[in-house]
Specification:
about 190 residues, mainly alpha, N-utilizing Substance Protein B Homolog, Chain A
Length: about 190
């Protein structure tokens, strides 16, 4: 397992040095579940959610003497939030993909993006569309943390730019709060 993903699963946030919350862990696992669903388009989203609940989000009965680190990698994840993201993003994938295609730079069709990038963007877009209870800035920052778990610096500004633009477009006046101070987040950084 990628050490950055392992660190985030165990509650570390390398950028802020804080413990990841239950929803942060749910988002990380939701991205992994959406990735799994993309690799197996015939898979049932509800079945994948149940698989994650049994083997990744919850502890197996035979967790062992090691405290269950291998069998219980994300015991603190918010199960309901995880299921909402996976099942919601799956059921609304057509609508989500339309939103993504609309804001991607010309020359960057959705299928050109890496599968993990698509999973991150789909999960983030779902939250922007369906979870008005979560502030736009929180959605963007949470998925940037997930992106950092999988990628070095290359893809993160691109993901920031896409989610920031979607946040502004979908939620209007709410401040999106992307990574503007660093100058990152321009959609044009990948175009060219």
């Amino acid at each position: 397992m990628n050490s950055k993903v392992q660190n985030l699963r165990q509650g570390g946030n390398r950028r802020q040095g804080r413990v990841a919350g239950r929803r942060s862990l749910a988002r990380l696992n939701a991205v992994q579940a959406l990735y799994q669903l993309e690799l197996d388009p015939q898979a049932d989203p509800h079945g994948v959610v149940e698989e994650f609940r049994t083997y990744r989000l919850g502890c197996a009965l035979d967790a062992g003497e090691d405290g269950g680190v291998e069998k219980c990698p994300s015991p603190g994840a918010d199960h309901a939030f995880f299921a909402d993201i996976v099942e919601g993003a799956s059921s609304r994938q057509g609508e989500i993909d339309e939103q993504l295609v609309r804001v991607l730079p010309s020359g960057w069709p959705l299928d050109r993006l890496e599968s993990v990038v698509r999973a991150i963007l789909r999960a983030g877009t779902y939250e922007l569309l369906a979870r008005p209870d979560v502030p736009t800035a929180s959605v963007i920052n949470e998925y940037l943390n997930v992106a950092h778990a999988f990628f070095d610096e290359g893809e993160v500004p691109f993901i920031n730019g896409v989610l920031d633009r979607l946040g502004r477009d979908l939620r209007g006046g709410e401040t999106s709060g992307g990574n503007r101070k660093s100058g990152k987040g321009s959609l044009d950084e990948r175009n060219g």
